[in-house]
Amino acid sequence: MRAIVAGGTGFIGRALIDELRDNEWEIVVLSRTPGKVAEVFGAGVIGMRWDNRDWPDILDKDTVIVNLAGESIAGGRWTEARKKRILESRVHAGQRIVEAVRLADSLPGALIQASAVGYYGIRESSTVDERNGPGEGFLAEVARQWEQSTAVLEEMGVRRAVIRTGVVLGDGGALKQMLPAFKLFMGGPPGSGLQGVSWIHMADEVGAIRFLMENGETSGIFNLTAPNPVQFRKFARLLGETLGRPYSLNAPAFALRFLFGEMADEVLLSGQLALPSRLQEAGYAFRFPELEAALADLLV
Ligand code: NDP
């Protein structure tokens, strides 16, 4: 089997490619800078530019496309230019995949399309699953258009699984950004701490993606989140305990708004409690369903 991983040089892509290589998948990475692919993965992983005219030729029923590409959402204050890049990088990646499939002689076996639990918008206390509709806000709109960018492939007969991912806990990403403050006894939940954190251990993120790639019966929307999401204050307490550095202070909302603007409201001060109902119904067994064990595995 062959995987074409768009955006495969990123945080999730690297871990996914390690998992797939261990399981005999042949890997092609679509990247803006294919030179980086050789640097990151060494020999054995092929890097291709998005505009390489040859890549539609390698599509066939034994090929699964995984689309992870997109400008980082938490990489800094959301200027108008940055918001445009966040949205357009995702929609354009989806459109280019659709164009390639149209040009190809054979259809791919499946597309795994990235999205995020931000789709559900700001939901304070009640849980959500795949049956819930879209919420409001910039991230919800990005997720809606991002998912929509490849929806036509379903009409063309391609199996498509959309992965609405939560906060991925691994060697990088959000956890890496939080650790320095906690290690200095200065970590704490942003704002009230009542907002939901729909987290997932990287082992389950890539385990679930591989499950969806290999399980030809699966299609539609899947929340990639652990079955036990928590409020941020519990997340901060468990993180502090795991590190042996109890937290004491909440980071005040006004200061976060001052530093990060709109991004603070949508990414730090609000969240969702998303449940992976469809993934569990499909038979995926989580390696890390509980946050304590996930943090201990990553940090101790
Ligand atoms: P990264 O930011 O680590 O990597 C994304 C990849 O996308 C990069 O390696 C890059 O590949 C490509 N990329 C970056 N900017 C652009 C751009 N402007 N135009 C086109 N391509 C670009 O993301 P993650 O691996 O953390 O996440 C993968 C996807 O999953 C992302 O879309 C993210 O939004 C989503 N997600 C991630 C979560 C997380 O906790 N990490 C949570 C929820 C969703 P290259 O430079 O090789 O072209």
UniProtKB/TrEMBL annotation:
Residues 251-298 form the DUF1731 domain. Residues 4-224 form the NAD-dependent epimerase/dehydratase domain. It holds the Pfam family DUF1731. This is TIGR01777 family protein. NCBIfam families: yfcH (TIGR01777). InterPro entries: DUF1731, Epimerase_deHydtase, NAD(P)-bd_dom_sf, SDR39U1. Belongs to the NAD(P)-dependent epimerase/dehydratase family. SDR39U1 subfamily.
